[in-house]
Amino acid sequence: MQQLIRMAAEIGPLAIFLITYNRTDLQTAIISLMITAPIGVVLYWFVEKKWPFMLLLGAAMVLIFGAASSYFENNDIFKMKPTFAYILFTALLGGGLLFGKNFIKLLLGSSLTLREPGWRYLAIAWAVFFLLMAGLNEFVWRNFSEDFWVKFKVIGFISITLVFGLALTPIILKYKVDEEES
User: Fold this and answer.
1) Three-state SS for 99?
2) Contact (Cβ atoms closer than 8 angstroms) between residue 85 and residue 58
3) Which of 31, 44, 100, 167 is deepest in the core (most CB within 10 A)?
4) Beta bridge pairs of residue 114
5) Among 133, 119, 127, 124, residue whose Cα is nearest residue 161
6) 41-70: pLDDT as tens digits
7) What are phi and psi of 100, to 5 degrees?
8) Structural Rg of the chain based on CA atoms
9) What is the pLDDT of residues 93-145, one digit of tens each?
């Protein structure tokens, strides 16, 4: 039950965004996301008793870009949100490494035990991935229809991210700390 609630907190707002868009328009869908994203954060906290950094950051960006998009009546502002989010993640990961902090390790260190080179490879891989995703978002929203962008944002980006995460499995397995080592 706890896992189901956590998944609903993470994916629910995007699903509601997509359903709302399919029944109304982008501006209404943005408002629905602005309402449900913070609810998802609180729901996650209720189950896990800790604040989910990535969901919290995502919800904050949804509120900022959603409010700006509504205020200026310009949906393109919201379409740029993923670009800024991905660039921010790239900067956090890359900048963290430059200053001796591995934010991937800070986020996942409680659930995954790797040797240091593995953490470094993961941080670099995710930083490059997020940079490429920023470029992909820019390409898609500027060259395709709004309808295509919305569906690609929800279904395409999630799918690509899952495939990329799975593609990192060999690195995780190679650098995973065995029970004997720990």
Assistant:
1) coil
2) yes
3) 44
4) 176
5) 133
6) 999 998 888 888 889 999 999 999 999 999
7) 80, 20
8) 17
9) 999 999 999 999 998 887 889 999 999 999 999 999 999 999 999 999 999 99
Greatest extent of the chain over all pairs of C-alpha atoms, in Å: 59
Residues 6+ apart with CB under 8 A from 131: 86, 87, 90
* Helix orientation angle between 53-71 and 2-23, rounded to the nearest 10 degrees: 20
Which of 154, 161, 135 has its CA nearest to residue 26?
A: 154
Reading the block at residue 66, the tokens are 């959603």
List of residues 6+ apart from 41 with CB closer than 8 A: 9, 51, 52, 55, 56, 59
The residues, ordered by sequence, that sit 6+ positions from 135 with a Cβ below 8 Å of its Cβ are none
**Number of helices and strands (H, E) in the chain?**
10, 0
State the sign of the Cα–Cα–Cα–Cα dihedral 37, 63, 124, 139. Answer: positive
- Lookup result for tokens 């670099």: 124
Q: Which phi-psi region, left, alpha or beta, contains residue 166 (left: φ > 0; alpha: ψ -120 to 50)?
A: alpha
Would you tell me the crossing angle of helices 2-23 and 26-48 to the nearest 10 degrees?
170
N-terminal to C-terminal alpha carbon distance within the chain: 31
Phi, then psi, of 114 in degrees rounded to 5 = -125, 160
